[in-house]
Amino acid sequence: MSAAIAGHPTEITQIAKKPKSQRSSDSMRKGIEILILSVPALVMFLGFVVLPVIMAAYYGFFKWKGYGKPSVNGTFVGLDNYKIILTDPNFQQALGHTLLIAVLSLVIQGPLAILFALLLNQKFKGRGIIRTLIFVPYVVSEVIVGTGWGLMLQSTGAVNAVLAKVGITGVDWIADPKAAIWTLMFIISWKYIGFAVILMIAGMQSIPEELYEAARVDGASFWQMQWRITLPLLGSTVRIWAFLSLIGSLQLFDLVYIIWGQYVASTAGTSTMATYMVREGRLAGNYGYGNAVAVVIFVISLVIALTYQHFVLNRDLEGAITGPEKKRNRKHKVSNKRAHARSAAANVSASQAKSSEASLATAPIHEGEVA
Amino acid sequence: MTAATAPQVNQATSRVYELRKSQKTPWGNPIVYFFSLLLVALCIGPVLYIIIGGFRTNSQITRDPAGLPNPWNLSNYKTVFTSGLFWGELMNSLIVALGTMVGIVVFALMVSFVIARYNFKLRGFMYSLFAAGMMFPITVAITPLYLLLRNLGLINSHLGLILPQIAFGLPQAIIILVPFLKSIPLELEEAAEIDGCSRLGFFWRMILPLSWPGVATVGILAFVSSWNAYMLPLFLLNDSSKYTLPLGVQMFSTQHSVDTAQVLAFTSLSMIPALICFTLFQKKIVGGLTGAVKG
């Protein structure tokens, strides 16, 4: 990283050594290398990720069945699609379910994952195998999870058979609209908690052992140590996990669609924004409308994500800045809001937790150099 | 005097013994084991139910939905193994997953190399552009993406699945790879240059071997997520001969909804490749993920 900040010393020595003509051919070669290496990825990314999102915004203004061009075969309706979406009780219901799922995922999985991570962070034989096994539900595909749980949770399925053995009469977990959302929450928690646990364990392992030793010397009990040391220092991991979970919940589609099916979803009590989009857009053949729903989902997700980043993740970004670049970076952050927004956007995933440091530290400074 | 030193020696040896003992992983507290095993049972119980259920007959399942096979019955698995349907879908899934994996690894490695080790004006912008891609999940783009691929004539083709999956997998891959490539010391590059190695030669001879753990993580994540992908194949594939396993499982379970045992056998066979891939490389994946969080 420091190398990148300092600029390439190799280049400087090269420039000093070589005659002028060779210098320009060197920089040309460098340019060509950059071009060859980055064009494939850029083209793919712009073509299949950025372009469709822009297209969605355009199509969303049309009433269009998906054939030919919207401007020829469709009718321009301005913001009508959006008006219909926002006043449609089915969409409001789907939005409600989605938000409920997002909040419940955080409330249910968070504390449980921390408890499980505490358990699996103890030193004992067989810990490695256990850690691998709890990650299995996360690796198994949504279709298999949906099919498997769908069979087990039928009114005559395995779950009710087990419950009957202990004297409980189970309900129809899937078909009963009142139970359905809780069934879905249970399956979601089962599927995704392994990921949360692994993240929490990683966070716990980065807490210095000395803190616990000192606390032990002072006579702290196990639970006191977890409450006063582990929990506060786990903050940044929890906040990043919560962000990932939030984004995942807002996009939830596969599990609901597989278990409750395309037609039942709106009356089954488990519809989400994404299932609404597919049902009203693609399946109904209203492509203009479907694209407008996509835009609404995107905007809602973006607003929630940016708000979360601004109020919650910001602290982690500040904490991530360490070392000699600190002052320079801060100054830059204040003076350049764009760089700030960029680095906030950069801190999107867990895998980015590390790179947020890198991007914050190098990107703005690099820009400063150029300017 | 000998009497005085003897206990000291004793103490010393017992201290050494204690040290050694503490280096070994101890057997844990029974309570820890109890809860850990309970947790494991909850996590893999349903998966085992699917696998074991495949060894039962439908009448066994109807009589006691939660019981064990009695007797064990291999016919469900045999039927799936001998049907062309399963193997065809397995091949489709393999083609798509391997294509996606290779594409993501190659393109992400190339562009990450540029972002991490070249100095140019748009570098910061390029990184932020890809990083922002994490905010564009496939759910939001699926409808226009379908229209785009239809215009390109890529409906019902494996290439139509592979290309968008590569594009949507790039951000995560780049975010994992850039720090890896950045951490390779510049001195190595200088030394290579003095020895007459070009930048691209350096890429092949030094960068690739040294960033192997990151490349492996990216590759496995790409493979597993393509293997499990549901939404894009659902939109793109109408022709059931092109179906990947997730669609195949769903189709099979709708068509054979009365034949539960058969569905369970089909389902459990379809998850095995991803499970094997994951178990073989799980340390790398978990390590890669946790390494990223530890920062």
TrEMBL record, chain A:
UniProt subcellular location: Cell membrane
Compositionally biased region (Basic residues): 327-341
CDD domains reported for this sequence: TM_PBP2 (cd06261)
Residue ranges with Low complexity bias: 342-356
Renumbered residue ranges of the record's region Disordered: 324-371
A cellular component term, taken from the record's GO annotations: plasma membrane
Pfam families registered for this protein in UniProt: BPD_transp_1
InterPro entries in UniProt: ABC_transporter_permease, MetI-like, MetI-like_sf
Source organism superkingdom: Bacteria
Protein's UniProt keywords contain Amino-acid biosynthesis: no
Family: Belongs to the binding-protein-dependent transport system permease family.
Name used for this protein in its record: Sugar ABC transporter permease
Organism (species): Galliscardovia ingluviei
UniProtKB/TrEMBL annotation, chain B:
Location relative to the cell: Cell membrane
Name by which UniProt lists this protein: Sugar ABC transporter permease
Organism listed in the record: Galliscardovia ingluviei
UniProt-listed GO biological process terms: transmembrane transport
Family from the record: Belongs to the binding-protein-dependent transport system permease family.
Annotated membrane topology: Multi-pass membrane protein
Source organism, top-level taxon: Bacteria
Transmembrane regions: 31-52, 94-115, 127-149, 161-181, 202-227, 261-281
